[in-house]
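Reading a protein record of the kind used here takes only a little practice. The record below shows the convention in full.

——
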Amino acid sequence: MKTNKSLLIGLLGIAVLGLASCSAMDNVRGWFEKDETSAHPVKGQAGHYYLVGDKSFAGQENLAWKVQGGYEATEDKNGTDLAQFLNVKIKKNTAVKILKFVDGDNDIWFGDLGATYDFCGVVDSNITFTKEGTYNFYLNSSSVIYITAMGE
């Protein structure tokens, strides 16, 4: 008769073998699906805009400067901006950029500011924040970014 410990080890071994046999294209419920409580996208969609950034912004080194660590643009109700990102919390010394996802290899990056701000500036072609806060980002049709600080 098997003990509970050996039964548990056997079941874990079967579970590991079952997961190992899944290919990257398999959709295993609860394992690879997007967490519906997260605002971060699973992958980029061609033609969509994302606000991405460094480890401080993304939360993890492996998500830095990737769609999975960023936020997808919200719809511009007035139709004048290419992309808007509203109420984004930014920590001090965080660097961000706007990315238009094409295919992962030919993506288009935006980091030009349309004004001078006392809370951020361009450093090494990234928008780097000197003050923590909540900000709105607007990428206009001239590919220039404007930022407004939200009152805290």
User: Anything to note?
Assistant: The mean pLDDT is 78. Strands lie at 49-53, 71-72, 81-90, 95-100, 108-110, 120-123, 126-129, 133-140, 145-150. The radius of gyration is 21 Å. The CA atoms of residues 13 and 129 lie 48 Å apart.
